[in-house]
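Entry for the shared binder. Reason: the reviewer on the internal report wants the predicted structure included alongside the sequence.
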Amino acid sequence: MNSPLISVIIPVYNVEKYLEKCVISVLRQTFTDFEILLIDDASPDTSPLLCDNLAKEDGRIKVFHLEKNGGVSNARNVGIEKANGEYILFLDSDDYIEDYLFEKLAATIKVNPADVSVFGLIEEYYDKNGEFYKKNVICPEEKSLTDLEQIRREAISLEATTLYGYPWNKLYKASLIRESGVRFEKMGFNEDIIFNIKLFYSVKSLNLLGIAPYHYAKRFGSTTGKFIPTYHRDIMYKIKELYLQFESFGILDHNAMKLLAGEYVRYTFSALERNLDPRSKLNRKARAEFFKKHIDTNLYKNLKPYFPTESLIGIMAATLKSADMRSAFLIARIIYLIKKFLPKLFSSIN
């Protein structure tokens, strides 16, 4: 039996409500040369049984039951080792895709068998009752790139639209991943973009597809709502790695610095807001020490001249620029209260 063109890797953990819809969206693809790898990450619900039942219905589905929970990074890494396809596509088990995606990807890589092909997505927002209430479409401009400088500059544009970091809006050449040695790191979050940053050092050809076939579910209580103890460390790791990559690529120009500075301000306030959460167990003194350490870094000093000045984020940036800790935490507390009591409003301004 020949290897399939595409291996679809789906980590599975506590997704009994969503898994079947996700898998069916793959089985309904008009292009059929693929395999599905369901990586059961020792899920405690009925997901493991559902995986087995789905596999009985279609021979293209393979199930791997892990003995203990290792997190999404480990599950994806297992999938990479087990995949037989020429290309790899990651899919989150509570999301789904349109049935034309694989056909479009196959046609595109036939013309330009790029290391990575990127497509757009639809952010779908759900409230605490699981009811859908809004969507946001993010779609790249269609193009194929083989010039290394153009590919590297495209990283800035992709990051500006949030399309750089996700692993599931990309089709990767399997040989690229294996030969580069890049794997998903075990982190509280942000493992996605760290994977892409490190992999893009090796990317020599790139497709951008002007379609948005991926439905990305942003559910109440997901990354935005849950408490992540390593949030600040992980987010600063991301910004540092982007800074170093843009510098290495020779594209750390004014636009890149403005982009990174804007992210730095937003994520700093997200960290400050999370420090106000009782689960952080930080008292006033500890929060003050956190703030002082945060602005006593080379990253802060390098990005400070490029802090945004417009609208709300400009006000936030001004408090950081002047090291006005009291005003910064006042804004962070307002954000915390909006996020806690008015989550729909928070999603509209976030």
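Summary line for the report: The chain has a mean pLDDT of 95.
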